[in-house]
From TrEMBL:
InterPro entries: Class_I_gatase-like (IPR029062), DJ-1/PfpI (IPR002818), HTH_AraC (IPR018060), INH-QAR (IPR052158). It comes from Streptomyces lannensis. Residues 215-297 form the HTH araC/xylS-type domain. It comes from the Bacteria. This is GlxA family transcriptional regulator.
Amino acid sequence: MTRVVFVLVPGVHLLDLAGPAQVFSTVGQFGRPYELTYLAEDARVPSAQGLPLLAETEWPELRADDLLVVPGWSGPALRDSPPIGDEMLRRLRAHHAAGGTVASVCAGAEALGRAGLLDGRRCTTHHDVQDELASRHPGAIVVRDVLFTTDDRVVTSAGIASGIDLALHLVAARHGPALAARVAREMVVHTRRNGHEPQSSAMLRHRAHLDDAVHRVQDLIDERFTVPLPLAALASFAGVSARTLTRRFGSATQGLTPLRYQQTLRLERAEHLLGHGATMESAAREVGFEDARMLRRLRGRPAAGGDPRPT
């Protein structure tokens, strides 16, 4: 079972913590359980909202597929952040060096910066402290006005509610966009937030519409994007003609056809696999292509719907 360790510091913002924790807890309802651990240097952790929290103080044994998440905390400036011990910073560095993913919400990026994990990497944080983060960690590539970034297993989000977007992105990357969509619906949150974030999945970018028939077709494509899905079968599933489905799908998704939407999901999954060491041939076959030729062709053309190429 994959473990998610939330690293807490005094003054932690409750939503920075509770949002991602709720996402990973909800994933377990759909057959992908996560073990959630809350860790701090002191067992009693005061929150910014006045609710005291209890945390463990002994670090668990971590594997490469486990996640470390540092939620943000209250404070007017990063320079006034609570003390973050050397052992905590060492653990963050060691987990990343061992192949693990390290994430932060809001001011939590400061902890990653102190651990040296932002040097040469794209990152973001709450808009109030973006300039200070760039000043304090000049080796970091601070990206402004985005919900979250991901760069070489270092994932950072803008703050507060954007921690939910970050967690849904991680679920989509690990388990596919269909499961992320189910989690979002269970939590009654939008599966797409305003703004064009290159790291968000196609599922997140193309769900900001109110066409229920198109949503149902997207659900089916999300779940079965690795197999052939003829337009006639999708139209029958939606209870409309193929021509009507094509028109309504394009209107709802900024000009995509069902096939282009499916190809976008295949491409994003293949990019994820390639980024984790898969060969072009193996990635192509895992996402449903007969060989790597179509994958190479898709990687060479502009991204669907004018959206940024996934990275």
